[in-house]
């Protein structure tokens, strides 16, 4: 199967980290930035890195940008450039365009252009860190919608050796434990008979209010 190809435009903190992680995951990555130094710094770490202005349509065309499976506009600080780049990528026929927004208004503008996915790294990381700070056993937090989330939580001492049926999270709190990560491996869709050991990681899905109650009353 052909490896998916990504183009990351804007190699600042977010773009360069994204580009390197995609490489680590085994994908081909073209990095683009108008700053020569930035491109030089990352050139050994991605498949190709080029100095180019992403608001220049001819340059994007000559890079064969429409052949990439996914282009990520990782330019945040300069909103005008971010929007112009996103428009050009769409017009050139790129299948999937993802763009980083630095504010709600920036995100709304990108949404209106029909960008396939708008991400808010700073806002999302702020929310995650806040949750981690107030819930010591919380490892990660992903918002699925305004009402629903998935959280990863360490099993605390008070739940050691308890089965999922004893915990009874679905009936008591309305949230479901959809996976359990144990030393021996991950159990997907654990059953009522599976037991929790201190230090295991529970992956819990549910409404935010229900997850909050679970955290307050159980953890
Ligand atoms: P971060 O906050 O993730 O560091 P920035 O918005 O500060 O993101 O960085 C954006 C990057 O995008 C910078 O490296 C900058 O040189 C690059 N950039 C800005 N405008 C263009 C452009 N027109 N074409 C290509 N790269 C650009």
UniProtKB/TrEMBL annotation:
<dbReference type="InterPro" id="IPR003148">
    <property type="entry name" value="RCK_N"/>
</dbReference>
<dbReference type="GO" id="GO:0006813">
    <property type="term" value="P:potassium ion transport"/>
</dbReference>
<protein>
    <submittedName>
        <fullName>Potassium uptake system protein</fullName>
    </submittedName>
</protein>
<dbReference type="Pfam" id="PF02254">
    <property type="entry name" value="TrkA_N"/>
</dbReference>
<dbReference type="InterPro" id="IPR036721">
    <property type="entry name" value="RCK_C_sf"/>
</dbReference>
<dbReference type="GO" id="GO:0008324">
    <property type="term" value="F:monoatomic cation transmembrane transporter activity"/>
</dbReference>
<dbReference type="Pfam" id="PF02080">
    <property type="entry name" value="TrkA_C"/>
</dbReference>
<dbReference type="InterPro" id="IPR050721">
    <property type="entry name" value="Trk_Ktr_HKT_K-transport"/>
</dbReference>
<feature type="domain" description="RCK N-terminal">
    <location>
        <begin position="3"/>
        <end position="119"/>
    </location>
</feature>
<dbReference type="InterPro" id="IPR006037">
    <property type="entry name" value="RCK_C"/>
</dbReference>
<feature type="domain" description="RCK C-terminal">
    <location>
        <begin position="136"/>
        <end position="219"/>
    </location>
</feature>
<dbReference type="InterPro" id="IPR036291">
    <property type="entry name" value="NAD(P)-bd_dom_sf"/>
</dbReference>
């Amino acid at each position: 199967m052909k490896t998916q190809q990504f183009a990351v435009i804007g190699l600042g903190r977010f773009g360069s980290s994204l580009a390197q992680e995609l490489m680590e995951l085994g994908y081909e990555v073209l990095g683009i930035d108008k700053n020569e130094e930035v491109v030089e710094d990352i050139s050994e770490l991605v498949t190709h890195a080029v100095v180019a202005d992403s608001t220049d349509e001819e340059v994007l065309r000559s890079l064969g940008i429409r052949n990439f499976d996914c282009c990520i506009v990782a330019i945040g600080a300069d909103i005008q450039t971010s929007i112009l780049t996103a428009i050009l990528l769409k017009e050139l026929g790129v299948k999937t365009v993802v763009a980083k927004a630095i504010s709600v208004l920036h995100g709304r503008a990108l949404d209106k252009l029909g960008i396939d996915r708008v991400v808010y790294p700073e806002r999302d990381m702020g929310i995650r860190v806040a949750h981690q700070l107030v819930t010591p056993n919380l490892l990660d937090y992903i918002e699925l919608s305004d009402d629903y989330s998935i959280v990863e939580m360490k099993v605390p001492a008070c739940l050691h050796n308890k089965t999922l049926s004893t915990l009874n999270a679905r009936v008591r709190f309305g949230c479901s434990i959809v996976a359990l990560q144990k030393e021996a491996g991950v159990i997907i869709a654990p059953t009522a008979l599976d037991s929790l050991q201190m230090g295991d990681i529970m992956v819990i899905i549910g409404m935010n209010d229900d997850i909050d109650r679970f955290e307050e009353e159980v953890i």
